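Structure in, sequence out. Go:
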Protein backbone atom coordinates (compact mmCIF):
# COMPACT_ATOMS: atom_id res chain seq x y z
CA UNK A 1 0.00 0.00 0.00
CA UNK A 2 1.34 3.44 -0.90
CA UNK A 3 1.23 5.86 2.01
CA UNK A 4 0.72 9.59 1.52
CA UNK A 5 4.30 10.57 2.32
CA UNK A 6 5.56 8.16 -0.31
CA UNK A 7 3.18 9.27 -3.07
CA UNK A 8 4.03 12.88 -2.17
CA UNK A 9 7.61 12.05 -3.07
CA UNK A 10 6.59 11.13 -6.62
CA UNK A 11 4.59 14.36 -6.89
CA UNK A 12 7.54 16.39 -5.64
CA UNK A 13 9.83 14.78 -8.19
CA UNK A 14 7.38 15.37 -11.04
CA UNK A 15 7.15 19.02 -10.03
CA UNK A 16 10.95 19.38 -9.66
CA UNK A 17 11.44 17.79 -13.08
CA UNK A 18 9.19 20.36 -14.70
CA UNK A 19 10.55 23.32 -12.74
CA UNK A 20 14.17 22.55 -13.50
CA UNK A 21 13.94 21.29 -17.08
CA UNK A 22 14.53 17.63 -16.28
CA UNK A 23 11.43 15.89 -17.71
CA UNK A 24 8.27 17.33 -19.26
CA UNK A 25 4.92 15.72 -20.02
CA UNK A 26 4.87 15.16 -23.78
CA UNK A 27 2.51 17.41 -25.83
CA UNK A 28 1.64 19.34 -22.71
CA UNK A 29 0.20 22.32 -24.62
CA UNK A 30 -2.36 19.91 -26.13
CA UNK A 31 -3.32 18.52 -22.77
CA UNK A 32 -0.56 15.89 -22.65
CA UNK A 33 -0.32 12.32 -23.94
CA UNK A 34 -0.49 9.58 -21.33
CA UNK A 35 2.62 7.42 -21.14
CA UNK A 36 4.90 9.75 -23.14
CA UNK A 37 7.53 12.07 -21.65
CA UNK A 38 10.19 14.38 -23.06
CA UNK A 39 13.54 15.05 -21.44
CA UNK A 40 14.48 18.71 -21.00
CA UNK A 41 17.96 20.30 -21.07
CA UNK A 42 19.00 18.90 -17.69
CA UNK A 43 17.24 15.56 -18.07
CA UNK A 44 18.68 14.85 -21.52
CA UNK A 45 22.22 15.56 -20.26
CA UNK A 46 21.70 13.36 -17.21
CA UNK A 47 20.24 10.54 -19.30
CA UNK A 48 23.11 10.84 -21.77
CA UNK A 49 25.62 10.48 -18.90
CA UNK A 50 23.73 7.48 -17.59
CA UNK A 51 23.73 5.73 -20.96
CA UNK A 52 27.42 6.55 -21.47
CA UNK A 53 28.28 5.07 -18.12
CA UNK A 54 26.38 1.86 -18.98
CA UNK A 55 28.04 1.64 -22.40
CA UNK A 56 31.49 2.23 -20.94
CA UNK A 57 30.98 -0.38 -18.20
CA UNK A 58 29.45 -3.13 -20.28
CA UNK A 59 30.87 -2.56 -23.76
CA UNK A 60 34.03 -0.41 -23.81
CA UNK A 61 35.61 -1.85 -20.68
CA UNK A 62 34.99 -5.47 -21.74
CA UNK A 63 36.48 -7.57 -24.49
CA UNK A 64 33.59 -10.08 -24.58
CA UNK A 65 30.74 -7.65 -25.39
CA UNK A 66 30.20 -5.66 -28.60
CA UNK A 67 27.47 -3.15 -29.38
CA UNK A 68 24.93 -2.67 -32.13
CA UNK A 69 22.36 -0.01 -32.93
CA UNK A 70 19.29 -1.50 -34.60
CA UNK A 71 16.09 -0.14 -36.13
CA UNK A 72 12.75 0.35 -34.46
CA UNK A 73 10.81 -1.20 -37.34
CA UNK A 74 11.85 -4.66 -38.47
CA UNK A 75 10.39 -7.29 -40.78
CA UNK A 76 6.90 -8.06 -39.38
CA UNK A 77 7.71 -11.77 -39.29
CA UNK A 78 10.13 -11.00 -36.44
CA UNK A 79 7.20 -10.44 -34.10
CA UNK A 80 5.45 -13.63 -35.19
CA UNK A 81 8.64 -15.59 -34.64
CA UNK A 82 9.27 -13.96 -31.27
CA UNK A 83 5.76 -14.81 -30.09
CA UNK A 84 4.76 -11.20 -29.44
CA UNK A 85 1.91 -11.07 -31.97
CA UNK A 86 0.30 -13.99 -30.18
CA UNK A 87 1.39 -13.52 -26.59
CA UNK A 88 2.29 -9.91 -25.84
CA UNK A 89 -0.97 -9.22 -24.08
CA UNK A 90 -2.31 -7.29 -21.12
CA UNK A 91 -5.62 -7.90 -19.39
CA UNK A 92 -7.64 -4.74 -18.92
CA UNK A 93 -10.64 -4.25 -16.63
CA UNK A 94 -12.72 -1.16 -16.00
CA UNK A 95 -14.25 0.01 -12.72
CA UNK A 96 -18.05 0.06 -13.05
CA UNK A 97 -18.24 3.00 -10.64
CA UNK A 98 -15.42 5.46 -11.49
CA UNK A 99 -14.58 4.01 -14.96
CA UNK A 100 -10.85 3.99 -14.29
CA UNK A 101 -9.01 1.19 -16.12
CA UNK A 102 -6.48 -1.22 -14.68
CA UNK A 103 -4.22 -4.11 -15.62
CA UNK A 104 -5.81 -7.07 -13.88
CA UNK A 105 -2.51 -8.87 -13.20
CA UNK A 106 -1.84 -6.45 -10.33
CA UNK A 107 -5.31 -6.77 -8.79
CA UNK A 108 -6.17 -9.63 -6.49
CA UNK A 109 -9.72 -8.99 -5.24
CA UNK A 110 -11.59 -7.61 -8.30
CA UNK A 111 -12.11 -4.25 -6.58
CA UNK A 112 -11.10 -0.90 -8.02
CA UNK A 113 -7.82 0.29 -6.39
CA UNK A 114 -9.02 3.90 -6.68
CA UNK A 115 -12.60 3.79 -5.34
CA UNK A 116 -13.23 0.19 -4.28
CA UNK A 117 -15.95 -0.28 -6.92
CA UNK A 118 -16.49 -3.60 -8.76
CA UNK A 119 -14.46 -4.28 -11.90
CA UNK A 120 -15.65 -5.61 -15.26
CA UNK A 121 -14.30 -8.92 -16.57
CA UNK A 122 -10.74 -8.52 -17.83
CA UNK A 123 -10.33 -8.27 -21.63
CA UNK A 124 -7.14 -9.16 -23.45
CA UNK A 125 -5.28 -6.56 -25.53
CA UNK A 126 -2.11 -7.00 -27.55
CA UNK A 127 0.26 -4.18 -26.65
CA UNK A 128 2.40 -4.07 -29.80
CA UNK A 129 2.10 -0.72 -31.61
CA UNK A 130 1.14 -1.21 -35.23
CA UNK A 131 2.27 0.84 -38.18
CA UNK A 132 2.43 0.29 -41.93
CA UNK A 133 5.17 0.29 -44.53
CA UNK A 134 4.46 1.68 -48.02
CA UNK A 135 2.31 4.57 -49.18
CA UNK A 136 -0.24 3.09 -51.61
CA UNK A 137 -3.53 2.15 -49.99
CA UNK A 138 -4.18 -1.57 -50.39
CA UNK A 139 -0.47 -2.29 -50.83
CA UNK A 140 0.69 -1.31 -47.40
CA UNK A 141 2.35 -3.91 -45.20
CA UNK A 142 1.46 -4.10 -41.55
CA UNK A 143 4.52 -3.68 -39.34
CA UNK A 144 5.21 -3.14 -35.65
CA UNK A 145 7.26 -0.73 -33.57
CA UNK A 146 9.57 -3.02 -31.66
CA UNK A 147 8.01 -4.15 -28.40
CA UNK A 148 11.44 -5.09 -27.05
CA UNK A 149 14.74 -3.80 -28.36
CA UNK A 150 16.54 -7.14 -28.06
CA UNK A 151 15.05 -8.67 -31.22
CA UNK A 152 17.57 -6.77 -33.36
CA UNK A 153 20.32 -8.52 -31.44
CA UNK A 154 19.02 -12.00 -32.31
CA UNK A 155 18.54 -10.93 -35.93
CA UNK A 156 22.16 -9.84 -36.08
CA UNK A 157 23.72 -12.65 -34.07
CA UNK A 158 25.16 -14.35 -37.15
CA UNK A 159 26.23 -11.06 -38.77
CA UNK A 160 28.14 -10.09 -35.63
CA UNK A 161 29.72 -13.53 -35.17
CA UNK A 162 30.76 -13.63 -38.85
CA UNK A 163 32.02 -10.06 -39.09
CA UNK A 164 34.03 -9.81 -35.86
CA UNK A 165 36.61 -12.06 -34.28
CA UNK A 166 34.50 -12.53 -31.18
CA UNK A 167 33.87 -16.08 -29.98
CA UNK A 168 31.21 -17.70 -27.81
CA UNK A 169 30.80 -16.89 -24.95
CA UNK A 170 30.16 -13.30 -25.95
CA UNK A 171 27.53 -10.63 -25.60
CA UNK A 172 25.84 -8.14 -27.87
CA UNK A 173 24.68 -4.94 -26.21
CA UNK A 174 22.26 -2.32 -27.38
CA UNK A 175 20.58 0.76 -25.99
CA UNK A 176 17.45 1.70 -27.86
CA UNK A 177 13.78 2.57 -27.94
CA UNK A 178 10.97 0.12 -27.34
CA UNK A 179 7.24 0.75 -27.61
CA UNK A 180 4.38 -0.82 -25.70
CA UNK A 181 0.79 0.24 -25.91
CA UNK A 182 0.47 -0.17 -22.15
CA UNK A 183 -3.16 -0.33 -21.03
CA UNK A 184 -2.34 1.51 -17.84
CA UNK A 185 0.76 3.73 -18.02
CA UNK A 186 1.52 4.96 -14.52
CA UNK A 187 3.90 6.31 -11.90
CA UNK A 188 5.60 8.94 -14.08
CA UNK A 189 8.51 7.27 -15.95
CA UNK A 190 7.95 3.87 -14.37
CA UNK A 191 5.50 2.49 -16.91
CA UNK A 192 5.35 4.44 -20.15
CA UNK A 193 4.49 3.67 -23.76
CA UNK A 194 7.75 4.78 -25.37
CA UNK A 195 10.97 4.09 -23.52
CA UNK A 196 14.56 3.00 -23.90
CA UNK A 197 15.98 -0.35 -22.93
CA UNK A 198 19.57 -1.35 -22.31
CA UNK A 199 20.06 -4.98 -23.14
CA UNK A 200 22.86 -7.49 -23.20
CA UNK A 201 22.18 -10.81 -24.87
CA UNK A 202 25.00 -13.10 -23.79
CA UNK A 203 25.51 -16.14 -26.05
CA UNK A 204 26.92 -19.23 -24.38
CA UNK A 205 27.39 -22.96 -24.86
CA UNK A 206 24.32 -24.73 -23.36
CA UNK A 207 26.52 -26.45 -20.74
CA UNK A 208 27.69 -23.05 -19.49
CA UNK A 209 24.27 -21.53 -18.82
CA UNK A 210 24.33 -21.93 -15.04
CA UNK A 211 27.70 -20.25 -14.67
CA UNK A 212 26.89 -17.27 -16.88
CA UNK A 213 23.38 -16.83 -15.52
CA UNK A 214 24.79 -16.50 -12.00
CA UNK A 215 27.54 -14.21 -13.23
CA UNK A 216 25.15 -11.73 -14.91
CA UNK A 217 22.67 -11.80 -12.04
CA UNK A 218 25.36 -10.77 -9.59
CA UNK A 219 27.10 -8.33 -11.95
CA UNK A 220 23.93 -6.42 -12.67
CA UNK A 221 22.81 -6.36 -9.04
CA UNK A 222 26.22 -4.96 -8.04
CA UNK A 223 26.15 -2.35 -10.78
CA UNK A 224 22.75 -0.97 -9.85
CA UNK A 225 23.76 -0.95 -6.20
CA UNK A 226 26.83 1.11 -7.10
CA UNK A 227 24.59 3.85 -8.53
CA UNK A 228 22.39 4.50 -5.51
CA UNK A 229 22.77 5.97 -2.03
CA UNK A 230 20.60 3.35 -0.39
CA UNK A 231 21.58 -0.07 -1.71
CA UNK A 232 19.22 -1.79 0.78
CA UNK A 233 16.40 -0.73 -1.52
CA UNK A 234 17.65 -3.05 -4.24
CA UNK A 235 17.17 -6.81 -4.29
CA UNK A 236 17.01 -9.82 -6.57
CA UNK A 237 13.76 -11.75 -6.76
CA UNK A 238 13.09 -14.97 -8.62
CA UNK A 239 9.95 -15.17 -10.75
CA UNK A 240 7.44 -17.77 -9.69
CA UNK A 241 6.46 -20.35 -12.31
CA UNK A 242 3.20 -18.57 -13.20
CA UNK A 243 4.95 -15.19 -13.55
CA UNK A 244 7.43 -16.39 -16.16
CA UNK A 245 7.15 -14.65 -19.54
CA UNK A 246 6.43 -16.98 -22.42
CA UNK A 247 10.06 -17.17 -23.58
CA UNK A 248 11.82 -17.46 -20.19
CA UNK A 249 12.74 -20.77 -18.56
CA UNK A 250 13.97 -18.99 -15.45
CA UNK A 251 13.95 -15.31 -14.51
CA UNK A 252 15.15 -13.05 -11.74
CA UNK A 253 14.32 -9.39 -11.46
CA UNK A 254 16.56 -6.76 -9.99
CA UNK A 255 13.94 -4.86 -7.98
CA UNK A 256 13.75 -1.43 -6.39
CA UNK A 257 11.75 -0.57 -3.30
CA UNK A 258 9.72 2.20 -4.93
CA UNK A 259 7.12 4.25 -3.02
CA UNK A 260 4.41 1.92 -4.38
CA UNK A 261 6.29 -1.27 -3.39
CA UNK A 262 9.06 -3.52 -4.71
CA UNK A 263 9.13 -3.08 -8.48
CA UNK A 264 11.03 -4.47 -11.42
CA UNK A 265 14.18 -2.66 -12.47
CA UNK A 266 15.84 -5.16 -14.77
CA UNK A 267 15.02 -8.70 -15.90
CA UNK A 268 17.71 -11.40 -15.98
CA UNK A 269 16.19 -14.03 -18.25
CA UNK A 270 17.28 -17.57 -19.02
CA UNK A 271 16.14 -17.51 -22.66
CA UNK A 272 18.03 -20.68 -23.63
CA UNK A 273 17.82 -21.30 -27.41
CA UNK A 274 14.27 -19.95 -27.76
CA UNK A 275 15.12 -16.85 -29.80
CA UNK A 276 17.70 -18.20 -32.21
CA UNK A 277 15.65 -21.38 -32.76
CA UNK A 278 12.48 -19.43 -33.44
CA UNK A 279 14.19 -17.10 -35.89
CA UNK A 280 15.88 -20.09 -37.56
CA UNK A 281 12.50 -21.74 -37.95
CA UNK A 282 10.66 -18.69 -39.29
CA UNK A 283 13.47 -17.41 -41.55
CA UNK A 284 14.65 -20.85 -42.72
CA UNK A 285 18.22 -19.73 -42.02
CA UNK A 286 20.79 -21.65 -40.07
CA UNK A 287 21.62 -19.58 -36.98
CA UNK A 288 23.81 -22.18 -35.34
CA UNK A 289 27.40 -21.54 -34.31
CA UNK A 290 30.43 -23.71 -34.96
CA UNK A 291 33.07 -23.64 -32.30
CA UNK A 292 36.39 -22.82 -34.02
CA UNK A 293 38.37 -25.14 -31.73
CA UNK A 294 36.11 -28.14 -31.07
CA UNK A 295 34.17 -27.76 -34.35
CA UNK A 296 31.03 -28.56 -32.43
CA UNK A 297 27.94 -27.04 -34.07
CA UNK A 298 25.14 -25.84 -31.82
CA UNK A 299 22.54 -23.11 -31.24
CA UNK A 300 23.99 -20.87 -28.52
CA UNK A 301 21.86 -20.35 -25.44
CA UNK A 302 21.17 -16.86 -24.17
CA UNK A 303 21.37 -15.11 -20.83
CA UNK A 304 19.52 -11.85 -21.24
CA UNK A 305 19.85 -8.81 -19.02
CA UNK A 306 17.25 -6.25 -20.00
CA UNK A 307 16.61 -3.02 -18.13
CA UNK A 308 14.82 0.24 -18.72
CA UNK A 309 16.81 3.45 -19.06
CA UNK A 310 13.88 5.71 -18.18
CA UNK A 311 12.90 3.52 -15.26
CA UNK A 312 16.50 3.65 -14.03
CA UNK A 313 16.46 7.42 -14.42
CA UNK A 314 13.31 7.64 -12.29
CA UNK A 315 14.55 5.24 -9.60
CA UNK A 316 17.78 7.26 -9.37
CA UNK A 317 15.72 10.42 -8.84
CA UNK A 318 13.70 8.67 -6.13
CA UNK A 319 16.93 7.57 -4.48
CA UNK A 320 18.65 10.96 -4.86
CA UNK A 321 15.85 13.30 -3.77
CA UNK A 322 16.72 14.91 -0.41
CA UNK A 323 15.09 17.58 1.71
CA UNK A 324 16.91 19.23 4.57
CA UNK A 325 15.75 21.75 7.19
CA UNK A 326 18.13 24.70 7.37
CA UNK A 327 18.84 26.83 10.47
CA UNK A 328 16.96 29.76 8.89
CA UNK A 329 13.80 27.62 8.79
CA UNK A 330 13.93 27.09 5.03
CA UNK A 331 13.97 23.72 3.35
CA UNK A 332 16.83 22.87 1.05
CA UNK A 333 16.10 20.37 -1.73
CA UNK A 334 18.95 18.63 -3.46
CA UNK A 335 19.50 15.65 -5.73
CA UNK A 336 22.22 13.46 -4.28
CA UNK A 337 23.10 11.95 -7.65
CA UNK A 338 26.28 10.07 -8.43
CA UNK A 339 28.54 12.82 -9.89
CA UNK A 340 29.21 10.65 -12.94
CA UNK A 341 25.53 10.93 -13.82
CA UNK A 342 24.81 14.55 -12.84
CA UNK A 343 24.09 16.80 -15.83
CA UNK A 344 26.91 19.15 -14.83
CA UNK A 345 29.98 18.25 -12.81
CA UNK A 346 30.52 21.79 -11.62
CA UNK A 347 28.95 25.23 -11.96
CA UNK A 348 31.20 28.27 -12.27
CA UNK A 349 29.87 31.38 -10.57
CA UNK A 350 31.26 34.92 -10.39
CA UNK A 351 30.28 36.34 -6.99
CA UNK A 352 28.90 39.50 -8.57
CA UNK A 353 27.71 39.60 -12.17
CA UNK A 354 28.28 43.35 -12.52
CA UNK A 355 31.99 43.25 -11.62
CA UNK A 356 33.86 42.81 -14.87
CA UNK A 357 37.07 41.51 -13.34
CA UNK A 358 35.23 38.77 -11.43
CA UNK A 359 33.22 37.78 -14.50
CA UNK A 360 36.30 37.68 -16.74
CA UNK A 361 38.31 35.55 -14.35
CA UNK A 362 35.38 33.17 -13.86
CA UNK A 363 34.79 32.98 -17.64
CA UNK A 364 38.41 31.92 -18.14
CA UNK A 365 38.06 29.10 -15.61
CA UNK A 366 34.72 28.09 -17.12
CA UNK A 367 36.14 27.90 -20.65
CA UNK A 368 39.12 25.90 -19.46
CA UNK A 369 37.02 23.35 -17.56
CA UNK A 370 34.46 23.13 -20.36
CA UNK A 371 37.08 21.50 -22.58
CA UNK A 372 37.00 18.41 -20.37
CA UNK A 373 33.75 18.37 -18.44
CA UNK A 374 30.10 19.24 -18.68
CA UNK A 375 30.12 22.58 -16.82
CA UNK A 376 27.38 25.09 -16.08
CA UNK A 377 27.79 28.86 -15.90
CA UNK A 378 25.61 31.08 -13.75
CA UNK A 379 25.96 34.83 -13.38
CA UNK A 380 22.30 35.52 -12.63
CA UNK A 381 20.58 36.61 -9.36
CA UNK A 382 22.03 36.08 -5.89
CA UNK A 383 24.40 33.37 -4.75
CA UNK A 384 21.78 31.62 -2.59
CA UNK A 385 19.46 31.19 -5.56
CA UNK A 386 22.32 29.92 -7.70
CA UNK A 387 23.18 27.25 -5.14
CA UNK A 388 19.52 26.30 -4.84
CA UNK A 389 19.22 25.75 -8.58
CA UNK A 390 22.39 23.65 -8.77
CA UNK A 391 21.36 21.62 -5.72
CA UNK A 392 18.03 20.82 -7.32
CA UNK A 393 19.56 19.57 -10.55
CA UNK A 394 22.20 17.56 -8.71
CA UNK A 395 25.38 19.48 -9.61
CA UNK A 396 27.90 18.10 -7.12
CA UNK A 397 30.12 21.20 -6.88
CA UNK A 398 29.89 24.98 -7.35
CA UNK A 399 33.01 27.03 -7.96
CA UNK A 400 32.84 30.68 -6.88
CA UNK A 401 35.20 33.40 -8.01
CA UNK A 402 35.21 36.14 -5.34
CA UNK A 403 37.29 39.20 -4.46
CA UNK A 404 40.05 37.13 -2.89
CA UNK A 405 40.31 35.24 -6.21
CA UNK A 406 41.35 38.48 -7.88
CA UNK A 407 44.22 38.78 -5.37
CA UNK A 408 45.57 35.24 -5.09
CA UNK A 409 43.92 33.17 -7.89
CA UNK A 410 42.20 30.85 -5.40
CA UNK A 411 38.52 29.93 -5.66
CA UNK A 412 36.00 28.34 -3.33
CA UNK A 413 34.39 25.03 -4.11
CA UNK A 414 31.11 24.25 -2.41
CA UNK A 415 29.92 20.69 -1.94
CA UNK A 416 26.28 19.92 -2.81
CA UNK A 417 25.70 17.29 -0.12
CA UNK A 418 27.01 18.96 3.04
CA UNK A 419 27.45 22.55 1.78
CA UNK A 420 31.07 22.51 3.04
CA UNK A 421 33.51 24.78 1.25
CA UNK A 422 37.18 24.49 0.44
CA UNK A 423 39.51 27.03 -1.08
CA UNK A 424 41.93 25.90 -3.78
CA UNK A 425 44.25 27.30 -6.42
CA UNK A 426 42.25 27.92 -9.57
CA UNK A 427 44.90 26.15 -11.66
CA UNK A 428 44.41 22.97 -9.62
CA UNK A 429 40.64 22.71 -10.10
CA UNK A 430 40.91 20.54 -13.19
CA UNK A 431 43.12 18.03 -11.40
CA UNK A 432 40.96 18.15 -8.27
CA UNK A 433 37.80 17.49 -10.26
CA UNK A 434 39.31 14.51 -12.08
CA UNK A 435 40.26 13.04 -8.72
CA UNK A 436 36.77 13.55 -7.28
CA UNK A 437 35.14 11.91 -10.29
CA UNK A 438 37.49 8.95 -10.10
CA UNK A 439 36.48 8.38 -6.47
CA UNK A 440 33.01 7.40 -7.65
N1 LIG B 1 13.74 -8.23 -23.78
C1 LIG B 1 13.15 -8.54 -22.54
C2 LIG B 1 12.26 -7.52 -22.05
O1 LIG B 1 11.89 -6.61 -22.77
P1 LIG B 1 10.90 -6.79 -19.95
O2 LIG B 1 11.00 -7.29 -18.54
O3 LIG B 1 9.57 -6.78 -20.58
O4 LIG B 1 11.91 -7.71 -20.76
C3 LIG B 1 12.84 -5.10 -19.61
O5 LIG B 1 11.53 -5.34 -20.02
C4 LIG B 1 12.91 -3.80 -18.84
O6 LIG B 1 12.38 -2.73 -19.62
C5 LIG B 1 12.08 -3.78 -17.55
O7 LIG B 1 12.79 -4.34 -16.49
C6 LIG B 1 11.87 -2.28 -17.34
O8 LIG B 1 13.00 -1.70 -16.71
C7 LIG B 1 11.79 -1.77 -18.77
N2 LIG B 1 10.37 -1.60 -19.15
C8 LIG B 1 9.51 -2.55 -19.58
N3 LIG B 1 8.31 -2.02 -19.84
C9 LIG B 1 8.40 -0.70 -19.56
C10 LIG B 1 7.50 0.39 -19.64
N4 LIG B 1 6.25 0.24 -20.08
N5 LIG B 1 7.94 1.61 -19.25
C11 LIG B 1 9.21 1.80 -18.82
N6 LIG B 1 10.11 0.80 -18.76
C12 LIG B 1 9.73 -0.44 -19.11
Amino acid sequence: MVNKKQSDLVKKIVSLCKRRGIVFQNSEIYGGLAGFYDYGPIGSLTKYNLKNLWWKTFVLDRSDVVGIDGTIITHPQVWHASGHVKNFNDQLAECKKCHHRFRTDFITDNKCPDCGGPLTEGRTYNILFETSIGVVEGEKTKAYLRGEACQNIYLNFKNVADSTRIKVPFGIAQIGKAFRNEVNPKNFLYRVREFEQWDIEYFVHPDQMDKWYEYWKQTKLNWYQSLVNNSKKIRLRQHTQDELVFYAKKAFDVEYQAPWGWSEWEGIHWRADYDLSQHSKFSHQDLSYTDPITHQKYIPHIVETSGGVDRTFFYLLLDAYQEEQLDNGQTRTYLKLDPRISAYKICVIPLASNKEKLVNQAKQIYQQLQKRYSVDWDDSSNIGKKYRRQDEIGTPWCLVVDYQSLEDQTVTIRNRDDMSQIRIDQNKVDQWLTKQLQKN
